[in-house]
Automatic annotation (TrEMBL):
Belongs to the ABC transporter superfamily. It comes from Stella humosa. The lineage of its organism: Bacteria, Pseudomonadati, Pseudomonadota, Alphaproteobacteria, Rhodospirillales. It comes from the Bacteria. Residues 29-251 form the ABC transporter domain. Keywords: ATP-binding, Lipoprotein, Nucleotide-binding. One of its GO terms (cellular component) is plasma membrane. This is Lipoprotein-releasing system ATP-binding protein. One of its GO terms (molecular function) is ATP binding.
C-alpha cells in the first residue's frame, strides 16, 4: 500500500514520484532470448530464454525464490557476465561482439553496480573507494571529485565515515558505502543486488530514498534484485523469476 502523499511516508520507504513511470518506451537495456548456461557434465542453466526491455527512469524489482537466477540476470544486464545464447543490447548497441575493454568502458561510464557482498576495497578509506572509480573515469579535477564524493557520502549520511576503512563500519554503513561507490560516476543505470538485505528499517529507508531520488530527479534507471517485499512493492515494475525464467512482468 502506497500513501496518497508519499512525502507523508507511511512506511520505511518514501516514493517520490510513483506515477511518473514512463514504461519501456525509451529502451536502454534490451535482453533478447538470453540464456546463461554453465558448461559441465551436467550443464546448469542460470537463466533461460529471457526477453526483457528496461527503459530510462524505470524502477524495476527482480524477485523470485532463492536460486531462481535473479543475481545471474542482474550480472548479465549489468554487462558483468556474457549470455551463452541470445544478446544484450545496451543503449542501442549490441554487446555480443564487444571486446572486454569496450564493455569495461561502458560499465565505468554508465553502470553503477551494488554487489550482494559489498566488495569495498578493504585497504582504502571510504572516500578513496569512491575516488578510485572517479579517477579511472577521469574528466574532472581531483578537487571536484572530492566535492562530489563528499556530497554523495553526505546524502547517504556517511559524512562522518569518509576517512574510515570498510572494516571500521557497521554492516549498514558498509552497504550504504557500497551504494555511494556505485553512484560515484553518476551512472545512468544503478543495478543493486539485495541493496537492503540485512539492513534495519532506517538504513533500508536511506538506501531506498537515494535510489528513488536518482530515478526521479536525474531520470536514472534502477534495477534491484530483492527479497525485501517492502522494496519490491514500491518499485514500478516487478519481474518475477522461477527456475531462470520470467514468469511475471507487471507494472505496479
Ligand atoms: N558459478 C556457479 N556454479 C554453479 N552453480 C551456480 C553458479 N552461480 C550460480 N549458480 C546456481 O545458479 C542458480 C541461480 O543462482 P543466482 O545466484 O542467480 O540465484 P538468485 O535467485 O540470485 O539466488 P539468491 O536469492 O539465493 O541470491 C542457483 O541454483 C545457483 O546455485
Amino acid at each position: 500500500m502506497v500513501p496518497a502523499n508519499p512525502a507523508a511516508g507511511a512506511g520505511p520507504y518514501r516514493l517520490a514520484d510513483r506515477d511518473a513511470h514512463p514504461g519501456a518506451k525509451d529502451a536502454g537495456i534490451v535482453a533478447r532470448g538470453v540464456s546463461r548456461i554453465l558448461p559441465g557434465a551436467v550443464p546448469v542453466a542460470l537463466v533461460r530464454n529471457i526477453d526483457l526491455t528496461i527503459g530510462k527512469s524505470e524502477f524495476v524489482a527482480i524477485t523470485g525464490p532463492s536460486g531462481s537466477g535473479k543475481s545471474s540476470l542482474l550480472y548479465l544486464l549489468g554487462l558483468l557476465d556474457l549470455p551463452t545464447t541470445g544478446s544484450i543490447e545496451f543503449h542501442g548497441q549490441d554487446t555480443s561482439a564487444m571486446d572486454e575493454a569496450t564493455m569495461a568502458a561502458l560499465r565505468l561510464s554508465h553502470i553503477g553496480f551494488v554487489f550482494q557482498f559489498h566488495f569495498l576495497l578493504p585497504e582504502f578509506t571510504v572516500l578513496d573507494n569512491l575516488l578510485i572509480p572517479m579517477r579511472r573515469k577521469g574528466g574532472q579535477p581531483l578537487d571536484r571529485m572530492r566535492d562530489r564524493a563528499g556530497a554523495i557520502l553526505a546524502a547517504l549520511q556517511l559524512d562522518g565515515e569518509a576517512a574510515k576503512r570498510p572494516d571500521q563500519l557497521s554492516g549498514g554503513q558498509r552497504q550504504r558505502a557500497a551504494l555511494a561507490r556505485a553512484l560515484a560516476n553518476d551512472p545512468d543505470y544503478i543495478l543493486a543486488d539485495e541493496p537492503t538485505g540485512n539492513l534495519d528499517t532506517k538504513n533500508a529507508a536511506i538506501v531506498f530514498d537515494m535510489l528513488d531520488r536518482r530515478r526521479c530527479e536525474k531520470e536514472r534507471t534502477v534495477i534491484v534484485v530483492t527479497h525485501d517485499l517492502g522494496l519490491a512493492e514500491r518499485a514500478h515494475r516487478r519481474v518475477h523469476l522461477v527456475d531462470g525464467r520470467i514468469v511475471a512482468d507487471r507494472a505496479a
